[in-house]
């Protein structure tokens, strides 16, 4: 997903018009239109202002992470957690070799298990950030 699409989605989620968002970021409505249509790229200061206003990371706005609250480092941490869990479950280091009642599971089930592990790892990371981040940094 491109930066413009993420800006549009976040703006619509907050039920803002382009003009209202333009006032928040101190640019023109035409500039917001150009960003959302990927005709222009926001400056670094505009990206920072948008991230602060919407409560997301700049990495998310720039398309570097799929989760609004996560930085690229958080995404790597989640993947490392999932990889460690998968590797700890199997001698062959692959979900495809997990045994279910003595039978090998198929690739589709393996992918579902991996997706579930990713979801759990993401949620636990978000909860840890909420619990352990001092109020002055929120």
UniProtKB/TrEMBL annotation:
Coiled coil (UniProt feature): none
Single Gene Ontology MF annotation: DNA binding
Alphabetical UniProt keywords: DNA-binding
InterPro entries cross-referenced by the UniProt entry: Cro/C1-type_HTH, Lambda_DNA-bd_dom_sf
A Pfam family it matches: HTH_3
CDD domains associated with the record: HTH_XRE (cd00093)
Record protein name field: Helix-turn-helix transcriptional regulator
Annotated organism of origin: Ligilactobacillus murinus
